[in-house]
Write a structure and sequence with these properties.
Blueprint: E1 39-41, E2 54-56, E3 60-66, E4 72-84, E5 87-91, E6 101-106, E7 115-126, E8 134-143, H1 148-167, H2 171-175, H3 179-196
Antiparallel strand pairs: 1-2, 2-4, 3-4, 3-6, 4-5, 5-8, 6-7, 7-8
């Protein structure tokens, strides 16, 4: 973890201690192996995961707060324990006040374009560091440049790809005059499937 000296000047902040990676996340395994999908879990009732599943995913999160003059009054680099479309839980041995709003940037896989978001600290856990239970939860407030689509693909990408590949083989799709019309048709077919089939596509049901 790296944090600027200004961390100690933030009102209500607890100064950082030496970072201890969560269990199963060594220094050489911060970024998941390319091509290996993260483990998707049903939510367990936490507010930041209430409507979406979460992925056990260890990736770097750059956090910062602007000082209003083109500089930064706080910055840190942490590692996620899990990520959902609505938020993330980060391993940390320092804490900021509840409700603090920060900027965040992270990538879902090595070499991918980063997701950029504004996020609020909504929960903290100060459990044993050696068990990976020390950290805080972020709730994503908004995103920059439609980068939230990368998060949606993390959970829906495999199913959407399979559905699209199968649909594009149909006689109807092959009869359409151009790619745009085929894209619109696939989207309409997907929405029809959701409306007429029980289950939650976010959970692969």
């Amino acid at each position: 973890m790296k944090a600027s000296s200004e961390v100690r000047e933030l009102e209500g902040a607890v100064a950082p201690r030496a970072y201890v990676p969560p269990v199963g996340v060594g220094a050489s395994r911060v970024v998941p192996t390319p091509g290996v999908a993260p483990r998707i879990e049903m939510n367990q009732g936490e507010p930041e995961h209430r409507h979406f599943p979460r992925a056990k995913l260890a990736t770097h999160f750059d956090l910062w707060m602007d000082d209003g003059e083109g500089g930064r009054r706080f910055s840190a680099n942490l590692v996620s324990i899990n990520v959902s479309v609505s938020g993330a839980f980060l391993a940390s041995t320092f804490f900021l006040p509840m409700g603090t709003v920060v900027r965040a940037r992270f990538a879902l896989e090595e070499g991918a374009a980063p997701v950029e978001t504004r996020a609020e600290i909504v929960r903290e856990e100060r459990g044993p560091e050696e068990e990976g239970k020390s950290g805080f939860a972020l709730r994503f407030l908004d995103f920059s440049g439609q980068t939230e689509v990368a998060l949606a693909r993390l959970f829906l990408g495999a199913r959407l790809r399979a559905f699209t590949e199968d649909y594009l083989k149909s006689a109807r799709a092959r009869s359409l005059p151009n790619e745009l019309e085929r894209v619109i048709d696939v989207m309409a077919a997907w929405e029809l499937l959701k409306a007429t089939t029980p289950g939650d596509p976010w959970r692969g049901e």
